[in-house]
Design a protein that fits this description.
With 753 residues, the protein is α/β, with parallel strands linked by helices. 47% of the residues lie in helices and 16% in strands. It has 4 domains: 165 residues, GAF domain (Beta-Lactamase, 2-Layer Sandwich), CATH 3.30.450; 94 residues, 3-Layer(bba) Sandwich (Glucose Oxidase, domain 1), CATH 3.50.30.10; 119 residues, PtsI, HPr-binding domain (Enzyme I, Chain A, domain 2, Orthogonal Bundle), CATH 1.10.274.10; 318 residues, Phosphoenolpyruvate-binding domains (TIM Barrel, Alpha-Beta Barrel), CATH 3.20.20.60. Strands 7-14-13-9-10-11-12-8 form an 8-stranded mixed β-sheet, sandwiched between helices. The chain binds phosphoenolpyruvate and magnesium ion. The site of phosphoenolpyruvate (PEP) has 12 residues, from helix 11, strand 16 and helix 22.
């Protein structure tokens, strides 16, 4: 049955449209279970009725027209219990519903399995048979496994269908897709789809009408690939052993065999562009090879994939066009990177929506600091249907509206105006100190990363840069920036803020911050080669960066250096020794005094060694984003578990408090630069813990300042004591929400007012 499982998923994924996918699914399940009928009912969320969406064995004339109320029949039992229902003789069940003309009365055996996605029942798949019998345990398990794997595909396909209808003129309902709110605000604009180059898996579907043009492009790409391989094989003829050279012959065979080309062409004639047609043909072949018994043949799957990539590279070279970014651009994609954002010309980007990612992904943090709207984790974002479409993003609730009606657009324009007014009113706070009603002051710093940030940060009244993420300079290039390039950028930021302090963090790539020119393939990237670990294995890169920072600091003296992802005292000492070497070397150039060196606390081991680290470092800065991820063992980038990523978790708050205490005991300044620092709900708790400074994205600084100026430090201490008595993150949030509401600061919580 395992083979059938793969085959069925493959067929459903590659079906031309949603009804065909469901019909294929019903037929394949009926055949595999050797049963007599298979039907699929999907829930219509608006009417709360199940609609017969495909059948093989019942009356097909009722497909699309038969509606069953969600509280009726055996369907309701399956949906309510969210469990399979396996009956020997269904008509004798008290809930059995007789439906005229369906032709179901001849069947007795019944197996119904719920289709569940993200805890929601989407529908039910049912197998039936005349003979009275219970379906075997393996049959039930097969159907459950199949449905689990198909649920996301069904969600995607259904959304595509819904969206296709929506963008037809004359439709008036607003289609809303749900995701994770990742950067607040409202964006109204036109989409541009982005996807990584030379990655076969990432090629999106795209419908075409000019078949001839796509066929010509394909043929040219195949010819160019053939020439490449022949040339490579000749060049390596002397140096490669015979066996290795056979690989080239095999490639040429595959390219010459008419079946691969025919297969790709058939997808093109069904309306796919050449790149996706290639992807489908290659994927089918890869699966066929992977299912082979013979080890040698099974391993050929990798060769097919490689050949596919080579053809794709030529296809992409030919179709590379300058992207025309609309005035109000909304990027959409499987995953959006910082580099994608940086590629949009200044002033044109209003937001992005992606299938992957979460509100704590680095790209979401970047969106917040740029003041654009973002919705991530939109599992059913139908990319291929949405290129160059009008969208509305609601970054407060994580909603994406496709081809909105004018009424909806009007409503959102009003919301956008309200946000603008709130921001405007907060500007009055710009020159006032972040001081409590009983005279306690705290430093408010800004998190920056792109050079464009400097102006905004100064405008909102920050007292310096609490975290300059240097990796952005590395991520927006196609090679490592030279030492001089780095020096110029660092100098700009240091002089823009001088004499205010600027804390520059050394390179923190890895995890969800890849460098296209320095690929790191790992099973667990967040637990792998990341941050300081890379710097210590590449001292030449690390020292070049430190040199660039120290030279940029000459005559300004406002630089501090911060080390990310430190997990032990040894790592800190090793990094410090490398930094000292650079400092000594630069003495001849009369550089500035030694910049203070800080350590980020973002790994649990560092919390427990905070005192030892504080003794050796000049200052401490807590990275609550990663600390939350590692303390709660929840990937900050994974939309499936985003619901349990919460920096208000009592364990995280205790870790923060403990770290502040350790720094205080060593008389070292302590700050926090994770996203929690910019959350007005957390402000009073952080103030009470004794942080010397909070570093947040520019847009949050006025909000945080507003809270600080309304409360006394004494009151904050009481609130912290109360919060730490509570045992769950949600209770702590509720407590803080109620506090701000009572103080008349509810507007900060409901950005929509
Ligand atoms: C953090 O982890 O809290 C932090 C500030 O670093 P980054 O978000 O860049 O990983
Ligand atoms: Mg971090």
């Amino acid at each position: 049955m395992h083979k059938s499982l793969r085959r069925i998923i493959d067929e459903v994924e590659n079906a031309v449209d949603f009804p065909t996918a469901l019909a294929t699914l019903a037929r394949s399940v009926r055949e595999t279970l050797e049963t007599e009928a298979c039907s699929i009912f999907l829930l219509d969320f608006r009417t709360q009725e199940y609609v017969l969406s495909a059948t093989d064995g019942l009356n097909t004339a009722l497909v699309g027209t038969l509606h069953v109320k969600s509280d009726q029949g055996l369907l309701s039992i399956i949906a309510d219990t969210e469990k399979p229902l396996n009956l020997e003789d269904a008509p004798t069940h008290p809930n059995y519903l007789t439906i005229p003309d369906l032709g179901e009365e001849i069947y007795h055996a019944f197996l119904g399995v719920p289709i569940i996605y993200n805890r929601q029942v989407l529908g039910v798949i049912i197998a039936e048979q005349r003979q009275r019998r219970r379906y075997a345990e393996e049959e039930e398990a097969f159907l459950v496994t199949l449905v689990t794997q198909l649920a996301p595909i069904i969600v995607q396909a259904e959304a595509k269908e819904m969206v296709a209808e929506q963008i037809e003129p004359g439709k008036h309902d607003d289609t809303v897709l749900l995701g994770i709110p990742s950067a607040p605000g409202v964006a109204i604009g036109e989409t541009v789809m982005v996807y990584p180059a030379a990655d076969l898996e990432a090629v999106p579907d795209k419908e075409i009408t000019d078949f001839d043009a796509e066929i010509t492009i394909l043929k040219e790409a195949i010819n160019a690939t053939r020439e490449d391989i022949l040339e490579l094989s000749e060049r390596l003829a002397q140096s490669l052993p015979e066996a290795e050279r056979e690989l080239f012959t095999a490639y040429i065979h595959m390219l010459d065999s008419t079946s691969l080309e025919k297969d790709i062409l058939s997808h093109i004639t069904q309306g796919q562009w050449a790149q996706a047609a290639l992807r489908q043909a290659i994927q089918t072949r890869v699966r066929q090879f992977e299912e082979m018994e013979d080890t040698y043949l099974r391993e050929r799957a990798a060769d097919v994939r490689d050949l596919g990539r080579r053809i794709l590279a030529h296809l992409q070279n030919q179709t590379q066009v300058e992207i025309d970014y609309p005035k109000q651009t909304i990027l959409i994609g499987e995953e959006i990177s910082a580099a994608d954002l940086a590629r949009v010309p200044e002033g044109r980007l209003v937001g992005f929506a992606s299938i992957q990612g979460s509100n704590n992904s680095h790209v979401s943090i970047l969106a917040r600091s740029l003041g654009i709207t973002a919705v991530t984790g939109v599992a059913n974002l139908p990319l291929s249907k949405l290129d160059h479409t009008e969208l509305i993003l609601d970054g407060y609730y994580g909603h994406v509206y496709v081809a909105p009606t004018s009424v909806l657009r009007q409503e959102f324009l009003i919301l956008a105006e309200q946000k603008r007014q709130l921001d405007e009113s907060l500007k009055q706070l710009r020159d006032l100190p972040a001081e409590t009603t009983d005279g306690h002051r705290i430093q408010l710093m800004v998190n920056a990363g792109l050079d464009a940030d400097a102006g905004v940060a100064l405008a909102v009244g920050s007292q310096g840069v609490g975290l300059f993420r240097t990796e952005m300079t590395f991520m927006t290039r196609d090679r490592f920036p030279s030492e001089e390039e780095q020096r110029i950028i660092y100098r700009q930021i240091l002089s823009a803020f001088a004499p205010r302090p600027v804390i520059m963090r050394t390179l923190d790539v890895g995890g969800d911050k890849p460098l296209s020119y320095f690929p790191i393939e790992e099973k667990n990237p967040f637990l792998g080669w990341r941050g300081i670990r890379i710097s210590l294995t590449h001292p030449e890169l690390f020292q070049a960066q430190i040199r660039a920072m120290m030279r940029a600091n000459r005559g300004l003296n406002n630089l501090s250096i911060l080390l990310p992802m430190i997990s032990s005292v040894d790592e800190f000492a090793e990094a410090k020794a490398l930094i000292d070497e650079v400092y000594d070397e630069l003495q001849a150039e009369k550089c500035t005094p030694r910049p203070p060196l800080g350590v980020m606390i973002e790994v649990p081991s560092a919390v427990y060694q905070a005192r030892a680290l504080a003794r050796q470092a000049d200052f401490i800065s807590i990275g609550s984003n990663d600390l939350t991820q590692y303390l709660l063992a929840v990937d900050r980038n994974n939309s499936r578990v985003s619901g349990i990523y919460d920096a208000f978790h009592p364990a995280v708050l205790r870790a923060l408090k403990q770290t502040v205490r350790a720094a205080r005991l060593e008389k070292k300044p302590v700050s926090i630069c994770g996203e929690l620092a910019g959350d007005p709900l957390a402000t009073l708790l952080l103030l009470a813990m004794g942080f010397d400074s909070l570093s947040a994205s520019a847009s949050n600084i006025p909000r945080v300042k507003w809270v600080i100026r309304r409360f006394s430090k004494e009151r904050a201490k009481t609130l912290l004591r109360e919060a730490l008595q509570l045992e769950t993150a949600s209770k702590i949030r509720e407590h803080m929400e109620a506090t701000l509401e009572q103080a008349g600061l509810g507007g900060l919580l409901h950005a929509r007012r």
